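Tokens for 26S proteasome non-ATPase regulatory subunit 5. Go.
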Amino acid sequence: MAAPIESLLNEICESEDPIEELKSLRTAVLATPVSGLRQAVSGARLEIIFGLLNTNDKEQIEVCVEILSRVLQALEPIQLAQNYKTALQSGLNHPNDSVRLLTLTQAIAALSKLSNTKAGLDALFRSDLLNKLKDVMLTNDIIRYRVYELIVGVSTVSPVCLGYCANSGLISQMLEELTGDDVLVRATAIEMVTSLAQSQHGRQYLAQQGIIDKISNMIIAAESDPFSSLYLPGLVKFFGSLAIMDSPQQVCEKYPVFLEVVFSMAINLDPTLTPVALDTLGVLGRTVEGKQVLQKTGSCVCERSAQYTNQKEGSTELRVRCLEALAQLLTLPVEQQTDDLLLLTESWFNCLSSQPMLMIRNISTQPFPELHCSALRIFTAIGCQPWAQQLMMDTPGFVEWVMDRSVGTGKEAKDCKFELVGALLSSSSIQEIFGAHNYLKLKTYLNEGPYYVNAVSSVTTEGAD
């Protein structure tokens, strides 16, 4: 296929109106697998096709873009950056949207691959592509987002990669966006900074640059900003992520405004803020250290979270997220159980309502599969804790309900019920509390699997209707 492609390129080069030859080339490259195309275009003069983008003929531009979209996939990133950087730079400023998008996509793909090796990084930062992208991104928010996404992705690979990106000036530019006038750009910058904080060296860099303190101050200032709902969830997610990766206690003690805002958002009926607050409380409370931090606030976290579960007028999604948060807060695996922590989870469960078992059970019977499963996950969360097992045993009909396979239809519901049974059996206290008979029935349920169906035999009598 190499010869036909080279031949077609020659024909295109010699033609004054090459649209038919371009269509033939398009057919040829689309018919060739990328692996075969790599050899076919390795020495091809693709600058011919790039040159034909400089026209007002929309059909010609469209065909050229289709050809280049396919062909450029076959090139090695270093080859693309070295041999076609001028063409890529020109494409970033092309008046046609499809050309700019093609160029941006190919440039970012090449830069991403280049960042995987030391030689590639050297080639990347020696080229002018990044500087060109810096110019173009100022005129287009989508391009700005993609460039920041690229830089953050490269930076998280290693401290060396972060150093390269910091030296380019693009990280500093991104961090300046945190306090810019455009709140939507600010929200994007917060998202990118949160991604950068996923690596330890990224967090160290942000701390050294004073960015974590700056974000804390942004949370404080958000109270007087009428547009804060557009970016405040991102600030909370940043600190929630930071707390889980480092230490909930250290982060919450150093930045107390974080938890204050989370609690405020949790009791706020704002559909943008409340779900993020519930998610954050759940993520924090899933760890032992997080539970202890939340306990120090002196308030019943579960009571704050549970207020939405029984609101029939509330959205199903919000109720589900509330139940999921409660399940995480109440989770306490056997290996983490101590007398103090068991007392804590028991007190939190009792905060849910005057009859928490009945409340969760009633939610599980509502005709919404997602609510049914989320309610079951709360029972699963407490299922290995002795106080909860005793509560289940003392609740009339509960044990029978657990082992009733007709309750809940659909794969997810059956899986959730199976996980509940598994949680009950993971604790050594279950046999004593539930009794030998119920214990054996639970073991049978577990051994039969989540989708077991009782066989029903029938006898046909001759002559029956």
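The first helix runs from residue 2 to 14.
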